[in-house]
Each structure stands twice: as C-alpha cells, then as structure tokens.
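Example with several molecule types.
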Amino acid sequence: MSTLTPTEPRASVPGRTALTTGPRRRGKSRMDPTRNNTAAGIAAWLLALLFAVPVLWMILTSFHSETDAATNPPSIAADLNLDAYKEFFGASSGVSPWPSLINSATASIFSTVLVLLLAIPAAYALSIRPVKKWTDVMFFFLSTKMMPVVAAVLPLYLFAKNAGALDNIWFLGLMYTSMNLPIAVWMMRSFLDEVPVEMLEAAQIDGAGLLLTLRKVVAPVAMPGIAATALICFIFSWNELLLARVLTGVVAGTAPVFLTGFVSSQGLFLAKVCAAAVVVSLPVLFAGFAAQDKLVQGLSLGAVK
Amino acid sequence: MTNATARISRPGHSAPQPSSNARSRGRALAWVRRAPLLPALIFLIIVTQLPFVVTLIISFLNWNSLSPDKTGFAGFENYIQVLTDPDMQQAIVTTIIQTVAVVLASLVLGLGLALLLDKKFIGRGLARTLLIAPFLVVPVAAALIWKHAILNPVYGLINGTLTWVWSLFGSDTPPQTDLLSQAPLMAIIISLVWQWTPFMMLILLAGLQSRPMDTVEAAQMDGATPWDIFRHLTLPHLRQYLELGGLLGAIYIVQNFDAVFTLTSGGLGTANLPYAIYETFYFANEYGLASAAGVVVVIGTIIVATFALRTVFSLFKKEAAR
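Resulting structure tokens for the full complex:
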C-alpha cells in the first residue's frame, strides 16, 4: 500500500494512458490483483504445506527406522531405509497384507465394472434419449445415496449370514456396486449431456444406426467421463470400512479392515503403521490425482462442474 | 458456450412428437427407452430399499440374537429406549456436534483456501495438489496417522514439535498435549476437518471459477473495494455452492464411522450414531434396538436431505435451463 504512488499505475499499464487523469482509485483497483497475488500465493502455499504436513510426515516416517520414528523431538534428518516396508509385507511378522490388498482390488474392480455396466445404459436413458419424468428417476437414484449405510447394514449382515455370503468378497463387491451406482449415474448423465445434440441429429439424418452413433458420436465424448467415473467408484470402494468390517472377516477382509489391526497402540511400530498407511493409500492417491477435477463432481453428485 | 446451446435444445429433443397412427409404436418405443434404465433401477431397489424395509420391521421387534426365545413384537419400545437411553442420547448429541462443527469449520477454511487459490500465483497447481492430498488418504489410514503419528502424547508430531521449539529457547519443560484422552471429540473433529476442507475448497473453487467476471470488472471500475465485491457479488454467487458443500458434507459426515472407530473406538463420549449402532448389533446383538436407532438416523438424514435435494435441484434446474 505504502509503495503505491499515483504514477505507478500509469507506468505499469502502458496501453491505458487515457486513464491517467481518472480518479486515483481506478489505478489502485487495477494494481490490486498483482499486489494481492503475491500475498495470496504465500498464504496459499503456507496453508497448503500445513495441510500436507500429516501426509508428508506419514511418508517420511515410513522411511525411518522404528527407533528414529518414535522420538520426541522428531528426527527429521534421520537415515532413510525400507525396513518398515519390508516389515509391513511380512518379512518377520508373518502376517502378509497381500490377501487384504488383493481382496480390496477384487471388490473395487468388480464393483466398478458392474457399476459401469449398469450406469452407462441408465445414463443413456436419462440423457441422450431421456425417458419421461427423467428428473424423478434421477432424484430416486440420489435419494438412495442419502440413506445412511448403518440403516441397512443389519439386514445385509443377516442376509449374508443366512445365504452363506458372509466373508465373501464378491458379495461385498455387490454391496459396493449399490453404494456407487447412484453417483455413477449422476456423473455419467452429466458427461453424456456434453454430447452436442446437433451431432446426434446429424448422425440420425445420415442414417447412422444406434451402435454406429454410440461408437462414433457418443463414445469419444463420453470416454474421459467414463474413466473419471470408474476412478471415483474405485476410490470409494477401496476406502470403505463399515460394510467390509461387518460383512467380511478372516478370508475376505479388505485393506481398510487390515489397517484396523493397527488401531491399538500396544506393541505398535510407528514406521510400520506409516508404511501400511502409505501402501494402502497409494492406489487412491494415484486415482485421486488423476481424477481430481472430476472428484468433486462425483462427490457432489454431478451438481458442480 | 457451444455446449450450453446444445443443452438448451435437449428437453425438446427428448420428446419427438409421435405421428397420429403410431400410438402403439410410441408405447413400444417408450419401453425401448426405459429398458436401459431398468437394470440399474431394479438392482438399486433390491439392494438398498429392501434392506431398509427389513430394518424398519426389525425396529418394531424384540430381538436379541443371544436370547432367541424372547423374540417378539415390541411396538415402539425400541424407539422409546433409543430416545431415553443415556448412551444413545449421548450418541445423538455427539453426532450433531461432530457434523455441525466439521461442516462449518471445513466450509470456512475451504472458502478461505478457495479464495486464495482463485488468484494466480507461482506454483498454484502444485499448491492445489498438496491441498487435495488429505482428501485422498484412505480414511482409516488418515485416522491411524492422526492417532499414532500426530496426536500421540509420547512421540506424536505435535508434542515433538513443541519440544523442539521449546528447546530452541533452551527450555527442557515444553508444554505437552494429550488431545486423544483430554479432548477426544476435538481430536476427531480436527482430523475430519483436515480431511474435508479440501472437498469444500474444490466445490467452492468450481463456484468461484464459474463466476461471471464482467460484473466483477464493472464493479472494480465503479470503485468497489475487494470486500464490497466479496460481500455483494462473490458471496451471493457462492451461496448455492456453500449450501451444496454444507449439505453434502453433512450427509457424508453424519455417516462417519472410520474416524470414531480408529481414533477412540467410541470411548469417552465420542461414539456417534453409526458407531453406536454398529456396537449395538455387532457386539450387544440387540438387533431391534440397533434397527430403531438406524431408523432414527434415517429420519434425521431425511430432514437434512430434503434441504440438500432442494439445493441440488436448484443447481440442476439452472443447469438444465442454461
């Protein structure tokens, strides 16, 4: 503020010499963005680092030895090694995380594929060739998402128990499908809305059949959307704990269920916990960064573009 | 803009007028149109609606799986017990405190961050990526890190940093905190705010970037201060994004289970309704009681969701009419 003199704005905006006789505040308001940006940039960076500290700390600690990890004050500059990762993958403890990681991958990929198979036709029926009262259908999908999982988990547990589907990873995958389907339908519909009507009409006039239209007109526009939807469904399934905790056990336990083994601090190895958290989070971090623009759209059910 | 024009004509495009002699053909066509929708609809009804109906039925039963002979119709007994039991009352209060605190704090922080990130500065993309990271750590893993690596009273990062800062000034007696045992609810709230602020930030950033800049420039020309612009242009424009973020956040955070399970295992008055319900049926085997509590959560969610739907609906309408 103090460095701002009336002559500065004139000098900094060469094309606007006509404004030099204008009131001083005009020059100031043009200057404001540049001046604020530096301050905003520093503030944003500080806050971003503050928010990232737990994540960065988790990653750093996972490369420390157990004795360096559990110190007060923290030993930031301690030697880095892969011991915690070796330990996590069962070098000496004997409990391998691989089955749970494979279970998580199985349930997540299976449910994601199933979600896409169900959601893409549904979105087609809600966007490209909308059925009557399609908004009502959209809101029905949304309303199922608003029901808390706890309100349905007991019947699902009882059903699984009686049907012999308890501790079965495919049944869990089926539950994840229902969890993600409404979001996927909403997202896919908003992506299919991007297909220009003119192109659809042109294809119709040219006598293109349904399959040809889908392949040549719809698919190119919808592909990135399908990819984003798939990534988001994968993330939600991978992250889920409550259903996995209730519906699986020894055989079909997922990675989050495996992580709950670290809840108690007794006999805890901090570097190993951090390594476990990093390993289990890696697929989500990759998928999330890849889909970051669409992530909010998915979570906000397609309402925000 | 090209997409916007396409969207205008879509509703009209959706309803081609059937010719006079093609009524039955039209009806068949309607079913052809509905067909792609049906698998998804039927699947969802079976997997989500049916279980809730069962929950509703069980909520009116006396049913503890450990004493099967006492199973029978209970009327509203379970509901009375849910609403009068001190533990359940505590869980209801905890749920409300957790949800409101987390939603408000993450909205305010998210708004601040979104306003900062809306400006151009060096490394903005990287800063944004760093800010999203908390949201992308698996919730259980995030809660574990908060519990063991950050908040642990002996070797956690917070106390470690305090020790380090105090040692810089030559002190051997730094203040040490133990949030997990002294203010466990606060610990849960902090970790959830950390995880949900990026979500709010992204929603509000999307809102900010859809703001029509010509009015802002006009206001600047008229000599409006940045505060004027924020108060009278930005905030009204962001209103529905704030509502959307708040209501969706509320719906997700009401259901929070991972943080409570991991950080405190529901101890010291931190059990929210999802965790209390989980304990009631999973450990106490009180199926009737757990179901009644589940129905109470749904009623609470419906109240919130009614507003949420209205907000989403208004966004949705606006988009359709664009």
